[in-house]
Structures are given as C-alpha cells and as structure tokens.
Amino acid sequence: MASKTVSPADRRNILRVIFISLLLDLISFTFILPLFPRLLEFYRSREAADASPHSLLNRILLGLNTYKQSFSRTISDRYDVVLLGGALGSLFSLLQAIASPFIGSLSDRYGRRTALLWSMAGNIASVALWLAATDFRTFLASRVVGGLSEGNVQLATAMAADISNAEQRAATMAMVGACFSIAFTFGPALGAALATVETVAANPFATAAGVSLLLILIETLYLYLYLPETLPSYRLSEPTDVSISTPTTRAKATSRTNSYLLLNTTHFIFILFFSGMEFSLPFMTYDLFAYTSSQTGKLLGFMGLLASILQGGVTRRLNPLLAIQIGVTACAASLFLLGRLTTEAGLWVAAGLLAITTSTVVTGLNTLSSFEAAEAERGGKLGNHRSW
User: Fold this and answer.
1) What distance in Å separates the CA atoms of residue 111 and residue 250, rounded to the nearest whole number?
2) Closest CA to 184 of 22, 367, 56, 316
3) What would the pLDDT profile of 258-270 be if each residue is shown by its tens digit?
C-alpha cells in the first residue's frame, strides 16, 4: 500500500492505529523508568541477604568495583546502583542496536505487520519475565529479551512513512514523536504509583509489571485486528536489493539529498550523549535530591507534557533541519546546567530544556532519514538509522 495509492480515509485510519498502539507500547515501556533505582536496590539487598557471593548480581557488582578502582579518585559505594543502572541501560541499547537493522530488513521482505507482531511477541515475553522476576537473573533476562525484540518505534516510523508523501512526512513524524511525549507525561507517574501497590511479596514491582503486560497484550490484539499491511504488496514478493529493482525504484533509492552516513553519524553522536543523560536522570535525582519514584515520575511527566505541547504545536511545522538545530542547542544548554546542578529549580529548568530536545532532534532526523529511503529499503534503512 504505497502512499500514492492510500485514500485519505484509509490513511487516517492507519495513522490512528499506529498512534494508539505506539502510545500503549510507550506508556508500558516508561513504567519502569522511575523505578530503576529502587528496583536495583531491592535486588541488591535481596541477594546480599539470600544469595552466595557468586550470584550473578554480586559478580556484576564485583566487576563494577574493579572498574571504580581504576580511577585515581575513590568512588563511594553509594554510586553502585547508578553504575549498575548505567550498565543495564547500555546493555539494552546495545541489543537494540544489533536487532534494529534485522527487524527493519525483515519488515521490507515479509511486511511491516508481520514483523511488528513478532516484535510484540518478544515484548510480551520480556514484560512477563519482569512480572516473574523475584531475582536479578530473571530481571536481567527480561531486559535482554526486551532489547532484542524492541522494534515497535522503528516499524511505526516506517509504516507512517509508507503512507505519507513528502509534504505530509514532517507532520507524520511529529505525530510519532508526540507518542513519546504523551507517554512520558503519564507513563512514569503511573508506574511510580503502581509500584506502591504491593500484590506479590516476593516482587514488590509486580503490580506495575502486571499492568504493563496488560497494556502490551491489548496493543498486540489491537494490532492483529486493525492494522493492515502498509508495505506495497508487490514489494513482498520482489527482491529488496535496490540494485535489481525497477528503474523507478532505483531512481528513488539513489536520489539522495543528504549523506546517509552523515545522518547516522549525527544520530549516533546525539544519542551517545542524550540517551545517557535521559536514562541517568532518575539516578541523578535519587542521588542528589533523594527523590522518590513518585517525585521522579512527576519530573518525567513534566518533560513529557512540555514535549507533547511542542510536538503538536511547533515541531510539526518546522523545517526538519531547523528542528534539529534548536534541539541540539537546547540539549547542550541542559547538559551544561546539569553539570553544575545545585538546586531543584535548576533541575527543573534543565528538564525543560531536555523536553525541547526530546520534541525536536529525533523527529527531525527521522524525517530526513525517511526521505533518503525508497519503499523497498525503508524498513532496513530506518532500522539501521535507529541502531546508530
């Protein structure tokens, strides 16, 4: 179903399915963000009391202590949870980077819908493992499975591009970005609230995990029932190598307006700094201001609300390159403030700047990247872009 053959009514229906499903997915995904510091403290204290010094978590902590001792300045043990959280975040991102190009290429070959449903199966397994995670080993397995199967965002981006022409592309990508913003408005706060409801003594985070699993199951059923295939049907049986495709496709595939290497490198450099700060923010508030999960959820909710307002009212109207420039400038200012953070007021100002960054840079890069890929290679190209 190429964009040129999609009627306005069908396009609206498909965009609605993409928006609702991605919103459910991201709300479920953001449940865990404000819980990470307390969650890792729970596993550390549990295994310190019950497990042998040779348990997986204790071996990881021993490795982190060895890493800390490599610095000339002594690093306090109170940073163990921060380092452990950073290691887990890096592992998830690494696995996602490995899997994304494969998931995208599979969607080019077998269709977006098929690839997305298989990705959802992995997400269900990941959250189910978190629900059952009474020890760190099981929780780590849930993060590994989640990292390898998380293809929802890149596939949603590819589907949105499939049904959008050049004039519609920026607004469509802003809609995908708005899902992130709305999810960050409600997901972390809801996850923090659910974590206060204890239903399983062996896993105090089981309520949040259970609701997260319910959302993923609802999303999967919704996609199965209502999502049509957006990849043109003739692409499903033809080779996806653009060098042997039709002359029209070959022209589209090679008519670049930007260097793909430049786009991917820009994405890599930006994500290298921004995603680390985004993931570390709950640990920073936990360490500097003793924030509870609820307080961290409110901070992330503020960021999501501001970003969603900007996505809906500003970013969708901006030239993608200008949006990237604004976002990178805001990111640099935010990192400068966070590096000199002494007050909560400064924290909230920096969070506001991060919200501007969230609402602009990735949306702009995704828009430019989508222009550089022909229909037969869009899933793989966007997957490769995301893996950077």
Assistant:
1) 20
2) 22
3) 677 788 888 888 8
